[in-house]
């Protein structure tokens, strides 16, 4: 279990991480999601003792990372896949890792197989690796010591679609066997499919957390997509109530929540063949919650002037 308690990290007057608390449970994949500069990497660096916190603390299995003897046997870490000696081969990097952790050298081949780096690739130097290959090597390195906790910073960066699917399967089965996984991403769809729990961070603050369903439960729907046996009749009935409905595909797009459309159809005895919310998905929630830390203007939303962002 990873426990983050009241974590704050300041750089001069700038607060990169602001009073952040959350827990990552064993057997669960926790997604740490936020736009660029939100504070994900900083939080993870504090977790593994690379950056001291200004306030608060992080414990892993009840201990500070620095107090864990032979930490690689307990916590697998991948923060920056390029942060290895560029002149070493993949095999050398894993071998040094295995020796440092006191592991049998057979682990090296096991891990190479696990991440599908073949024997030829393993003899190439890191500087000649693609980003995707570096990520695979980094994941192999993180898993080398058979740790019970995994901390991965944007591990899907550079992986091809098949690689992302492979990683998803790997992390899911790791969690199913009782492992604790924390993985960060700035891309919602990367995390959405893997994560049991999600922590949303924007500008150094947690803006939402919970399972996908819990997060979506709070989202309010304002527009619907509906198809009726008689679209025209439904459209008229809605307009009588002052609700705008415009043709969309085989049905209508309605400026009202699904419950309102359903009610109208019942009142007029109109049979519906499809009714759903047209908005309020996870992406919209994510963008709305992290709105003031987005760099790019969102369509249909007023921009807030960015104040004093460092990046
Ligand atoms: N060593 C540092 N000195 C000054 N500012 C930093 C330092 N490290 C990170 N920051 C700032 O902290 C903020 C959060 O960065 P980071 O944790 O890397 O975000 P993320 O990983 O979510 O993209 C950014 O604005 C970044 O510029
Ligand atoms: Mg980062």
Question: How are the elements arranged and paired?
Answer:
Elements: E1 2-11, E2 14-24, E3 29-33, H1 40-47, E4 55-60, E5 75-78, H2 90-101, H3 106-114, H4 119-122, H5 131-143, E6 149-152, H6 161-176, E7 180-185, H7 188-192, E8 197-202, E9 205-210, H8 212-217, E10 224-228, H9 231-240, E11 245-248, E12 251-254, H10 258-268, E13 272-277, H11 282-289
Parallel strand pairs: 3-7, 3-8, 5-6, 6-7
Antiparallel strand pairs: 1-2, 1-4, 8-9, 10-12, 10-13, 11-12
Helix pairs in contact: 2-3, 3-5
Bound molecules: adenosine-5'-diphosphate (ADP) and magnesium ion.
Adenosine-5'-diphosphate binds near residues 38 and 39.
Task: Tell me what you see in this structure.
With 311 residues, the chain is α/β, with parallel strands linked by helices. It has 2 domains: 214 residues, Rossmann fold; 55 residues, no CATH class. The chain contains 11 helices and 13 strands. The strands form 3 sheets. A 6-stranded mixed beta sheet has the order 5-6-7-3-8-9, sandwiched between helices. Strands 11-12-10-13 form a 4-stranded antiparallel beta sheet, covered by helices on one side. A hairpin with a 2-residue loop joins strand 1 and strand 2. Helix 2 crosses helix 3 and helix 3 crosses helix 5. The longest helix has 16 residues. The radius of gyration is 24 Å and the shape is elongated. The C terminus is likely disordered. It binds adenosine-5'-diphosphate and magnesium ion.
